[in-house]
Sequence to fold (208 residues):
Amino acid sequence: MLVRNWMTEQVESVRPEDDIASVQERLRELRVRQFPVVDRGRLVGIITDRDVRSARDLTARVEAVMTVAPITTTPSTLVEEAASILRARKIGALPVMEGDQLVGIISESDLFAAVVELCRVLEPTTLIDLECEEGVEPLQRIRRTLESRGGHVPWISGVPDGHGRQRVALRVRMPAGRAPERILEEAGFEPLSCIIGRAAESSRHEGA
Fold:
């Protein structure tokens, strides 16, 4: 699972010259805990609700209390890695950068939702690996094939091999009695591996 699938793309930001009182009001209004600080299109810091609460002068500027050069992540980073950074650094969110461009932000609540979706401890899911033609269309066809049989695909990703093919990993939840790997085989795909059920009940099927 990648950061790009869970980050907030419509990023609300503030400027270094904004006063802390206005930031306090926006935090309350939008019910968020932090804002990236952007100056002329460039990320220069991050300000949190903790920074605002600790400020003695609400007329002071954001740049007086913001964290300069904040830790960032990228859209292609694994959510597990992003979560590890948050925990190790004891911070609440990571701006998501693509080169020099701010493209999103991922917070503790986003990562918690991702972990819940990944684990789904109350409902057995199946993790499938397969190979297929490169491109978005085969991924869409895999999703449509499973959903047409009552399945739900929380996530799917493909990594091109540079030779017109891609290695695909997906997690699917199916109604009882329906085997997703068989459904994909019938649709012309060839699952390489299939891990089924909760950890305590998991089994493994190896295919061609």
